[in-house]
Design brief:
With 379 residues, this protein is α/β, with parallel strands linked by helices. The protein is built from 13 helices and 19 strands. It has three domains: 258 residues, Purple Acid Phosphatase, chain A, domain 2 (4-Layer Sandwich); 62 residues, no CATH class; 45 residues. 34% of the residues are buried.
Length: 379
């Protein structure tokens, strides 16, 4: 039984103020071609379909077109919401479109019933668990001890009543301990949202979303497929792909990847302005249409450098300098510094400054619950 696993489409995303819609349309067409060639029994989309809870009209139109093409392939499609999605908006009309083979996870209600697919190797039960927080699970199981994300996932999984005789597959969107991150992910710093991989021991394959780098966590049985596109310069060296998972019965899993080639790559180059603007250099590199991060090593700033460089590197996203001045500068970009930290980490640093000691584990847990409660009320 073969499945294609994708996630974190982030449709409608802007990177350094550049719209990625054209790139996303291009890569989705490539994914359709791969699916048509692979002819899988099912397709997993493991969350973060959109980049925002209220997506743009063009993002919704793009996903609608993608679903129509998937439905035309006559295969089963399983979709869950991620932390960037609005589960209510994504699940709208899910019961009506089930008949077309498009299955979208409803809002978590404490009970998850599997979809079952059967072939010559047996029956595969597919469980769809959208992104959840401890508060989401406590609501339905107030008697359970739920102090962490791991506790929440363990309770949610235990309530699924898995049939161990079948092949069992889980789609979920969480940060599993040990996964390697990228800068473009929205994850709590400090590990407050970590989930221990042991909660997934009863599954033959876990199709994960949330982490942008393709990777296994512990074994190939628990896998992030990664984003189909690079969404930050921390991902420059990553090879994006579609994951293909084949289950030929219990304990018989084979995982492989099919490469994805973007419309425009994301690249970084470094050197003196005079070197990077040589025709012999930029014509040989092929970077003129790619998304670029350029670091100039000139000791003096180049007037209007961004404007001048964009006449050659048309999609220049980021420009900085590496020279004597910048290497010895003690200035810190406060906005970026803060934006890269979670509310919990910012509060714990404030607490340490005020009191001269770090917060205890009990204090951190108490503060995390307050933060979650505030977010729940806002939503």
């Amino acid at each position: 039984m073969k499945f294609v696993h994708i996630s974190d489409l982030h449709l409608g995303k802007r990177v350094n103020e550049f719209s990625m819609i054209e790139d996303q349309k291009y890569i989705l067409a490539q994914i359709i071609d791969i699916i048509a060639k692979e002819a899988p029994h099912g397709i997993f989309i493991a969350g973060d379909v959109y980049d925002k809870a209220v997506p743009s009209a063009e993002a919704v139109e793009l996903f609608d077109d993608f679903l129509v093409q998937l439905a035309a392939l006559k295969t089963q499609v399983f979709i869950i919401s991620g932390n960037h999605d609005s589960p209510e908006r994504l699940a709208f009309g899910n019961r009506l479109i089930d008949a077309s083979g498009i299955h979208i996870s409803p809002i978590y209600s404490g009970e998850i019933k599997p979809f079952s697919l059967t072939d010559g190797h047996g029956t595969a039960d597919i469980y769809m668990l959208p992104f959840i927080k401890p508060a989401n699970v406590r609501k339905f199981y107030p008697e359970a001890k739920i102090d962490s994300y791991t506790d929440a996932l363990r309770v949610a999984v235990d309530k699924m009543c898995i049939n161990e005789n079948n092949m069992n597959i889980l789609l979920t969107h969480q940060f599993v301990t040990g996964a390697c991150r990228s800068e473009s992910e929205d994850i709590s710093v400090g590990g407050a949202d970590n989930v221990d991989a042991s909660v997934f021991d009863g599954f033959d394959y876990v199709a994960l979303g949330h982490i942008h780098r393709p990777q296994n966590v512990g074994s190939e049985r628990v896998r992030y497929c990664g984003t189909p596109l690079k969404y930050s310069f921390s991902e420059v060296k990553q090879e994006k792909s579609v994951t293909v998972a084949e289950l030929n019965g219990k304990n018989c899993l084979n995982v492989r990847t099919v490469p994805l080639i973007p419309l425009r790559d994301m690249c970084e180059i470094k050197g003196r302005y005079s070197e990077l603007t040589l025709k012999s250099f930029y014509e040989n590199t092929g970077y003129t249409q790619d998304y670029m991060h350029i670091t100039l090593t000139d000791e003096d700033d180049i007037p209007d450098a961004v404007v001048k460089l964009r006449t050659i590197y048309h999609n220049l996203m980021k420009l900085d300098y590496d020279n004597t001045r910048t290497r010895h500068s003690a200035e810190v970009n406060g906005v970026q510094f803060i934006e890269n930290k979670s509310p919990l980490q910012l509060f714990s640093e404030f607490f340490e400054l005020q009191n001269g000691l770090k917060m205890s584990a009990e204090q951190l847990d108490f503060m995390q619950k307050i933060i979650e409660s505030v977010w729940e009320d806002e939503q």
